[in-house]
Known about the structure:
The complex is a heterodimer of chains A (357) and B (334).
Chain A: H1 2-8, E1 9-22, E2 25-38, E3 42-46, H2 53-60, E4 69-76, E5 79-80, H3 81-84, E6 97-100, H4 104-107, H5 114-126, H6 130-143, H7 149-152, H8 162-174, E7 180-184, H9 192-209, E8 212-217, H10 220-226, E9 229-234, E10 237-242, H11 244-249, H12 254-262, E11 312-314, E12 318-320, H13 329-341
Parallel strand pairs in A: 3-8, 3-9, 6-7, 7-8
Antiparallel strand pairs in A: 1-2, 1-4, 4-5, 9-10, 10-12, 11-12
Chain B: E1 15-27, E2 33-45, E3 49-53, H1 60-67, E4 75-80, E5 83-84, H2 90-96, E6 100-103, H3 117-128, H4 137-146, H5 163-175, E7 181-185, H6 193-210, E8 213-218, H7 221-227, E9 230-235, E10 238-244, H8 245-250, H9 255-263, H10 303-307, E11 313-314, E12 320-322
Parallel strand pairs in B: 3-8, 3-9, 6-7, 7-8
Antiparallel strand pairs in B: 1-2, 1-4, 4-5, 9-10, 10-12, 11-12
Helix pairs in contact in B: 3-5, 5-6
Amino acid sequence: MAGAHVAQAQLSVRDLTVRFPTGRGTVQAVNGVTFDLARGASLGIVGESGSGKSVTAKTLMNLLPRTAEVSGDVIFEGEDVRQLAEQGREHFWGVKMTMVFQDPMTSLNPVKKCGEQIAETLRYHLKRAKKTALAEAEDLLAQVGIPEPGKRVDQYPHELSGGLRQRVVIAMALACEPSLLIADEPTTAVDVTVQKHLLDLLDTLRRDRGMSMILITHDLGVARGRCDEIAVMYAGRLVERAAPQTLFGDSRHPYTDALLRSIPRIDQPSHTRLEPIPGRPPELINPPEQCAYAPRCRFAQADCLESIPQISGVAGMHEFACFHPANTDRGREALAANLALGRTAAGLEITGSGGSS
Amino acid sequence: MAGSGHAPLREDLDVLLSVRDLEVEFPVGKGAVVHAVSSISFDVAEGETLGIVGESGCGKSTVAKSIIRLNDIKGGTVDYQGHDLARLKGEELRRLRPDLQMIFQDPISSLNPRRKIRQVISEGLAVWGAERGSWSQSRIEELMLSVGIDPKFGDRRAHQFSGGQCQRIGIARALALDPKVLICDEPVSALDVSVQAQVLNLLEDMKKRYGLTLLFISHDLSVVKNVSDRIIVMYLGKACEIGNANELYEHPRHPYTRALLAAVPEPAPTVDVSEGDISGELPSPINPPVGCRFNTRCSHATEVCFTEEPAMQRVGDSDHYFACHHPVAVSINA
């Protein structure tokens, strides 16, 4: 099963590690991230700011600054993506693998008409003639659901609403018919009703074109309905990966578990007391050799402070990186022991209320 | 979408803040004006949390800023304990302002980067002196402790704290003058999800501890529901629905409210997702649609919606009001 899964993978990321040297020390932004993405599948990467989700995406897109120290393998359709840059293959990114960013206003050129910007992509990568490219651009605007595409090609980004601008960015990313689209917080800057339309659009386009997608978001709800699989990142590590139903219904990593409990839910009555996660995400400069979540974790035991749990489990099914996983006997024992003591091995004071059962 | 009329104003309660026919316009040159808020009426009872929800550009922040006079009011009244905040000027306004404090969306940029946070928190007390509680080191330390900031960090500056901590400091600053009303404009939108719950719980605790009345503005429907007793849904400068938080989410009567609820990535279980879609773009607030302002995007719209502005009407004898000619039917099985 696991072998078959790997063989079908379109994108294979192995032990990806990214470090940024700074004046204060080396930032360990991404630590040993490993995952596969099957052709036509969608993967959600969920995490807070600083969790490494965007750095992972930028590594795939070869967008990291030169100072970044990268190791590990990124294999896409049999090609070593990290070597492509050295070989000068600039037509790989933007053609086979493209990206949509969070803020459409800053990813569009403010002094160029929308149509021209899309046409530019086609002319640069696919060497289309100017006229053909412009006609194709109009067609693409129609495909992403922009009303009156004939009029919009001649408009500048500031003349469009935020939702329409993001559609233009999506049209641009789709221009060369990529086989993988990376969307980094594509709907964070827009309102909920627009968000729904954009996510619906990405869904439809992905299915129609048999394209794969990596959706990066901080919003668990966004990833839930739109992805075949969700990967949760914390402090530069992948801590849990599962299908949405499993992740939301039977999470294993205490961070995922706590995150789901801390978010206000629309189906809870008002004034429901939230269960916050104590503390805050760790510094990524010189982190200690321990589970990065241990200082905030209600389950933490002595072994959590001695080594870093590696992600394990059945690839493609449910993987997690924890010694005392939530919703298991081992986890329940750890929590019961901590509750009896009133504190965890990391010194966090805990009480009976809240936390995982 | 209308929402004119005084139906939602309550008389039988201990009302602390009562807004009547509030109108705010901003000139944008060449004689054009943005109709940011058009004839909104609502009230807030003492000790209540009123949530204001709506998409960007609906006027929710303008309503909040008008109440503490951060922008000019064109028409209407804002009654606070017998004073009309909309008309007050000079010293009279200055004397009332400490009663109404605000916390903002971006916690870091709302703190002066050059000041020690002890100074940031105590500035209001230094200005008001004995009139609003005495300025003392122990008072500042008590405030810091109550929001969960260790007083030993009092000499640090804003950039040395995380976003969540800065928001706590902003809350401590707002509480320093012992206000009656706390206006929170998107207070958790800039925070990481794991920190949001800490700040939301802190606001609830502070509300109880200091007997505050809260006005809570957010675009996040789940967050608003969690903190609010009552909620106003706004669209293009008008209120379209006002009601008890649980009731409003369970039985939305305005098509726009239903559309909003259906668009939440994890929609409310009782909302019919298939029917709740809205299409098209938000019309310009410079030339808002005549009649119901939601008519350009509403699937229920008929002729009357383009000619006549619907007035606020009450659902039975409940605390639930909506402004729509063709309200969403209440599902019986729900």
